[in-house]
Write a structure and sequence with these properties.
By secondary structure, the chain is an alpha+beta fold. It has a domain of about 80 residues: 2-Layer Sandwich (HIT family, subunit A), CATH 3.30.428.10. The protein is built from three helices and five strands; from the N terminus they run αβββαβαβ. Strands 1-2-3-5-4 form a five-stranded antiparallel sheet, covered by helices on one side. Strand 2 and strand 3 form a beta hairpin. It is globular. The structure holds guanosine-5'-monophosphate (5GP) and zinc ion. Guanosine-5'-monophosphate binds next to strand 2.
Length: about 120
């Protein structure tokens, strides 16, 4: 999609610090890291949100998640632990409308959901 920032990163017209790339998946460091390790893992194909993932995208989605798992090992955070987050639409806090998973680790991330009732 021509006005999508992550499609531009895939194309290379916006630079990024890539940590992994193959024909289907790209991973690059978040420009505003929220943790010592903060990497975005995306399908190269433009899928706007998690709501737009179709059953036929199952293999692609698995590849994205397994890429995150592999990078976690390479970044040395597999054993200490990490969080893999997808923000969907406005209440989810999504700002970039090209499907992506945040891989966050390298520090204790806190109990995001614990103790919340709403
Ligand atoms: P969202 O809020 O949509 O889940 O996450 C979007 C993420 O993309 C944010 O963490 C933001 O810092 C990151 N981001 C936005 N623009 C760029 C960019 O041009 N380059 C990189 N590397 N990350 C970006
Ligand atoms: Zn896109």
């Amino acid at each position: 999609m021509s006005d999508c920032i992550f499609c531009k990163i895939v194309e290379g017209s916006i630079p990024s610090t890539k940590v992994f790339e193959n024909d289907h998946v790209l991973a690059f460091r978040d420009i505003v890291p929220a943790a010592p390790v903060h990497i975005l893992v995306i399908p190269k194909r433009h899928i706007p949100t998690m709501n737009d993932v179709a059953p036929e995208d199952a293999a692609l989605l698995a590849e994205v998640l397994l890429t995150a798992q592999k990078i976690a090992k390479e970044e040395g955070i597999a054993e200490s632990g990490y969080r893999l987050i997808n923000n969907c639409n406005s209440d989810g806090g999504q700002t970039a409308y090209h499907l992506h998973f945040h891989l966050l680790g390298g520090r204790p991330l806190g109990a995001l959901l614990e103790g919340h009732s709403s």
